[in-house]
Amino acid sequence: MTTQLLLCSGLLLLTGCAIYTPLQPPAPLIDGPQQVEMSGSLRSLGPLEGAVAYSPVQHVLLRGVIGGGTATGTDTRDSITQPALFRTRQWEASLGTYWRPGPAVLLGGFAGYGRGRGAHDYLRRSGQRGVWFQPGPDSVWAYRYEAQYRRLFAEAYVHWRTEPFFSGGASYRINHVRFSRYTNDGAAIGFRQMWRHEPVVFLRMGEEEGLEDWIAGQLSLGCTFAPGFHTPTERAGNRDLAEARKTLPFVTVSVMLRPHQIWRRFQSR
Fold it and tell me: How many CB atoms lie within 10 A of CB 87?
């Protein structure tokens, strides 16, 4: 099943990227001190992510996340599907908490800070076509966006276990993004900040006590959007504003490792 999910996620690469992309690691299934969860994720928006969450004492969580990558594909611009190149690098650190009000429910949340940079180029070809993403001799880059930004965010999540081997959940993140640099082909764009909302629902497989509780997989569905903004449908729309604020759905496939469970097994022998 994991292979099928990875293939599905890969088919969705670059189906509408933007200069800003979210960091959205799996909500950790941590409910006690000295627990650790490490995760690696592949998102349909292009980048890879790695995260580590740790609880040093009861009800306290620390988490660090890095993400980045380069992807090629196609994207729609001015009602025309064009080749596109996407690059991103970002990181974040956060402080959180968790509570278990019942045996089947886990609640948690984070607040944190992050920084990122991205580039998104649209290629318009004319005359002889290049091979894949190598521009031909008569090709020109229609748009070449570059940005650096920082963000403050808050996130809340809930896990609930429906069956011994499966659990479901949802998370919601709000980000305040502030651009320190935002250009198109080197020319500065006068857009400085925005709010973005990122709801996610997920299905988690594994981690039943007594079985393979040190490894799990997760499939997540979500989106990132700027409230009150709608992408222009006409070519006369503000292309630069649309690039930063357009709504993007995403699919994420994750693998989680819980090293403390391996250590407990080793100690019990």
Answer: 18
